[in-house]
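With this grant's support, the team has encoded backbone shapes as discrete tokens. A representative record is reproduced below.
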Amino acid sequence: MKKTIISLLSFILFVYLFHIYLELEIYYSIGIGILLLFHELGHVIALRKTEGKLNGIYFLPFIGAMVIGNKKIKTENEYAKINFFGPLMGFISLLLLFILYLIVKKTLLLNFIFIGSFINLINLIPITLLDGYGILRGSIKHIKWLGFFIIIFLIGYMLEGYMFTLCFIMIFFLISDSPEVKDTGFKIWEAIIAISSIIAMVFITIKEKENIMPNLAILTLSFFIFFAYIKETLFNKNKEEHKIELLTPLTKKQKILWITSYVLLSGSLFVFLSIQKIF
């Protein structure tokens, strides 16, 4: 019950902050939250299919949502399946929205299809913390680096969000997992990159007085993530938590399956975006 209440409160906070800071209409903020919920329910379904137990669905303002479970993943195939079901469920929800649009002809539904497609496509970028990396990491070695450059390009060039770019660089290096690495404890070079990013963000916050509030919010989030990293890697008494088992690798057939599934799902979502523009 307690976890359900926390999950619900995180959803309400997510919707409220989207409504206030991005000045979205409340129904858009709620709609985005529901689209994310459908996405996360896909992960819940996959978790239960692999005999895992759900501990909660938590929404993170301006970042997204995440599913917490007790499943100890043993194979790369399980890892890919749990990540794949999120975008898959998201795609199904968009398909239902499109069918509903053909019936009622409400433009609002097309807007939600666009938003949902964009969310899913971003999630399919093969980068640490996103589903695309989870789907392909057992199939393509060092795939996260391709995703890293893609997302830096998107944030830096398309959005010109320097604060977001620096924050993302810090998160990428601090919370980057890899099937080839066992020890995920403290690393000095990770701390140096994180501190350098935070210093740069401080200077940007001071300089860009017109964006002081959103920049302070991102800076605060970055400090929180950095100190959480320090706490978990330097001051955690149970050092065994930082050891992860190397997962059973995929067979050649499974690799082809996940790459094909990734391409088909990404292509389908791209078609949805194109349809929205046509209509």
